[in-house]
Amino acid sequence: GRLEAVTQQMGYHPQYLDSFLKTQHYLMHMDGPLPFDCRHYIAIMAAARHQCRYLVNLHVLQFLRAGGDPQWLRGLEFIPPKLRNLNEINKILAHRPWLITKEHIEKLLKISEWSWSLAELVHAVVLLAHCHALASFVFGCGCEQDEGLGGRGSLKPLSLGNHCFCEATASNSYSQELLRINRKRSLDSCMELDSLRERMQRIHVETEGRDEMRLQQDREEGEGQGAEVGVQGGTEHCSDLSAGLSPLADTDGEVTGATNLACYMQDPDFGYQDFSRRDEDHSQVFRVQDYSWEDHGFSLVNRLYSDIGHLLDEKFRMVDGLQSSAIAKRQGCEPSVFKRGIWNYIHCMFGIRYDDYDYAEVNQLLERMLKVYIKTVTCYPEKTNSEMFDRFWKQFKHSEKVHVNLLILEARMQAELLYALQAITQYMI
């Protein structure tokens, strides 16, 4: 239930790792508008859009530890309508955030008994954007292919001798406290594992019993059509939890997620499409001069979800401040120029434009293979593979590869937030 493979990779940049862990901890475990079980379920919904088992498995386990209803793990049909109504904005944010409008926001805020408050919705939007972007990093750095500490085989884990990885990267008192909490959780998780297995097995048996009883009643009543419906209900709706999205213990005693992520999605064929700027419709383009994170998004999100704006802003600034002189030197430019080229290229793919930037620089700075890699990790990370990583990045050191993946994570997250927060602002106006 911990982000070990992710923190292994981020550990090449300890200052960023510290900022990331603070934000992750605040979003999931500190006081906020949303209940803890709902936070993890929203994370499951977000990760499922990109078929990211690593994150789904993590949050399935944490959802149960937070007291979540195991029946929800059977799929979207078994969750409260309020949560299910979030599916549309989750889908759009993950793949085509430029389609979000104030009408989507209004629909969520004005659905009688299932309505969201503004604070709850902002918390949910930040969670969705965080998990979508983190899925890009997970695939980009190979954590999805191998959920062990080292990530993908071709990505060598950070070697720190006999020191605990987190101890070596902790840079302040907050990190030390977080380490203490994580160690305690690690011990707790071992003690909880048997109890978790028993709970899931009991639910499994009870569900099978109910299905068998219903089928028996159907047969006794001679309702052939009714029996057929009962069988369909038992299979399509994952009544057998071992075939659905429930966590089950594998041979190593680890709790793993399930096999069918489709249970957490509606409209699975909805995906990224190239954003094309039509000359006759300039209103499609999102101009940062009109709505920016610094001047608009930060204050709105911080007002509705206390302190999260400061944490996000620190993370954005931290990734911008990471040293990348070696990369830039090989590309024949200043580090800031190279990083801005990557950042603006990612935003451009989501229709976000900077009036003061010459986009011809992107083609000069970024080789074609690197652009293909960045676009894949950003827009459809589930299609990333180890061959793509190795082939396109031979000239980069491992820490530099991680750095570029961090830029992808943060640029993508900010892009989603800009569209969502602008829609919320338009609704409020």
Automatic annotation (TrEMBL):
Keywords from the UniProt entry: Cytoplasm, Oxidoreductase
GO molecular function, one term: oxidoreductase activity, acting on peroxide as acceptor
Residue ranges, annotated region (Disordered): 213-232
DNA-binding listed as a keyword: no
Cross-referenced InterPro entries: AhpD-like (IPR029032), Sestrin (IPR006730)
Catalytic activity annotation: a hydroperoxide + L-cysteinyl-[protein] = S-hydroxy-L-cysteinyl-[protein] + an alcohol
Family matches, as Pfam families: PA26 (PF04636)
GO cellular component: cytoplasm; nucleus
Compartment(s) of residence: Cytoplasm
BP term (GO), one: cellular response to L-leucine
Source superkingdom: Eukaryota
Protein family per UniProt: Belongs to the sestrin family.
Protein name in UniProt: SESN3 protein
Organism of origin: Sitta europaea
Lineage: Eukaryota, Metazoa, Chordata, Craniata, Vertebrata
Gene: Sesn3_0
